[in-house]
Specification:
Layout (H helix, E strand, L loop, with lengths): L3 E4 L2 E4 H21 L3 H26 L1 H6 L14 H17 L5 H22 L14 E2 L5 E2 L9 E6 L4 H16 L4 E7 L3 H11 L6 E4 L3 H5 L7 E5 L5 E6 L4 H11 L6
Parallel strand pairs: 5-6, 6-7
Antiparallel strand pairs: 1-2, 3-4, 5-8, 8-9
């Protein structure tokens, strides 16, 4: 599973790449099927895309409203990757159906372009969706605690585990740190481990003392081996493992309290009825 696609020095989340590819497929289909009215089809598809994105964001905000209400500023920060895709798809399809009924574009071509775009998004999402995987090779990475003593991820077993790769020079890492600090305190049933990538013990300790004094389980990865093991060049990166140590999800990029809570619910064992 690749959490991101790299183009040279740039790192893009896979879900964004799939969305862009699906949009390109729809617009190309509009040009091929639409003939002289291809611009009309493209206009409808662009509007459907915007409506779908807004609806997907609103759906996510509703699902995580308890966390959003604690800090309403999160609602506008789309960098956290918080979307409810099926809500967005439903809204986009509803608008295209309305446009077809109003004859805003040729119906067969419009519906065909929508079907290809939606199919590309659904199939691409399924192919690239996180699937449970055996415990990642990170357990073999040589780590240190803040005192320079050897440490290992294998020590964190028996509970769902969140592993965050970060650095103090990384702006999104710094922005999401308070959300992790609160989540760690509020979820004692989940291990939180923070692997600093390539910084000295003194630099890490100074940063944590100033900005996250209650953060526990901060470890050092002096050579950045964890990032190389996961074939990841972007920070922050967060791995979500279930209680059996299986890798369930990977997020490259910033998390808010709401998106973090959503992913924690996904790895928490289902309570017996």
């Amino acid at each position: 599973m690749s959490p991101a696609i790299r183009l040279g020095p740039l790192v893009f989340p896979t879900e964004l790449v799939v969305l862009l590819v699906a949009g390109a497929v729809g617009l190309l289909a509009a040009r091929l099927f639409g003939g002289k009215r291809a611009p009309d089809i493209s206009t409808v598809l662009w509007r459907a895309l915007v409506i779908g994105l807004v609806a997907a964001r609103l759906g996510f905000l509703w699902q995580t409203r308890e966390h959003i209400l604690q800090d309403p500023s999160q609602a506008l920060d789309i960098r956290d990757g918080g979307w409810t895709g099926m809500v967005g798809l439903a809204a986009a399809c509803a608008y295209v159906a309305y446009a077809a009924l109003r004859a805003m574009a040729p119906r067969p071509a419009l519906l065909g372009a929508l079907a290809l775009a939606a199919g590309t998004w659904l199939i691409g999402g399924q192919l690239l969706a996180p699937t449970p995987q055996p415990q990642p090779a990170l357990t073999a990475v040589a780590l240190q605690d803040l005192n320079g003593k050897p440490a290992a991820l294998a020590a964190f077993q028996g509970k769902p585990t969140v592993v965050n790769l970060w650095a103090s020079w990384c702006p999104p890492c710094r922005r999401e740190m308070p959300a992790f600090e609160r989540a760690q305190a509020a979820n004692p049933d989940i291990h939180f481990v923070f692997l600093n990538q390539g910084e000295t013990p003194a630099a890490v300790r100074q940063y944590l003392d100033q900005h996250a004094p209650s953060l526990a389980n901060a470890l050092l990865d002096p050579a950045g081996e964890a990032s190389r093991t996961m074939s990841n060049r972007g920070l922050p990166a967060t791995l979500f493992l279930d209680a059996d140590g299986r890798l369930m999800d990977v997020r490259v990029g910033e998390l808010s309290s709401a998106t973090l809570a959503q992913r924690l619910d996904a790895i928490r064992p289902v309570a017996a009825p």
